Amino acid sequence: IGNYIYGGVEVLFRGSFEGASHKITGLTINRQNADYQGLFGYIYGGTVRNLGILGADITGGNNVGGVAGDVTGTVQNCYNTGSVSGKNYVGGVTGDLSNPDSIIKNCYNIGNINGVSIVGGITGRNNMGTVQNCYASGQIKGTGQDIGGIVGENAGPVKNCVALNPSVSGHLSV
Predict the structure, then answer these.
(1) How much is the pTM?
(2) For residue 117, how many other CB atoms are within 10 A of its CB?
(3) Alpha helices for 32-124 (secondary structure H)
(4) Are β-strands 5-6 and 147-148 bridged in parallel, bridged antiparallel, or unpaired?
(5) At 120, is the secondary structure helix, strand, or coil?
(6) What's the pLDDT score for residue 170?
(7) Cβ pair 44, 99 in contact under 8 A
(8) Integer-rounded Cα radius of gyration of the chain
């Protein structure tokens, strides 16, 4: 849903998605060279709430997350239990939280996250957004710079979050 570029056309999710505590199971995305991969490719000013991603296997290029590849909106009360792999900007919930008005709130990730640089348990990068009331566990691996239990590269507030005994490897940050 809302993959950033599709057939040469920009596609952004701008709406409101209420998951009503439903769970999506069996999601498989295998696009190793495609950016903006996740259930939602790019949430642009939109909101996704109350949704679980169970046992997914998501592989992409840059900006890869369980719920969304990139967010300039809100992700709230969502979680991921599956594996997420990519190159840069890779996270359990989102790959990139990319503006000051963006929020990830009351979310968690217990899946394994693998990338090169800017890799985090919740989000790969927080670019002046807010990450609040979140937790992450599981294995978080990167081979490059900025690897963290919650956020890989951070420039915004991270409030009341905890990495619960995750295995984090790479050049660590937050």
Answers:
(1) 0.93
(2) 21
(3) none
(4) unpaired
(5) strand
(6) 76
(7) no
(8) 14
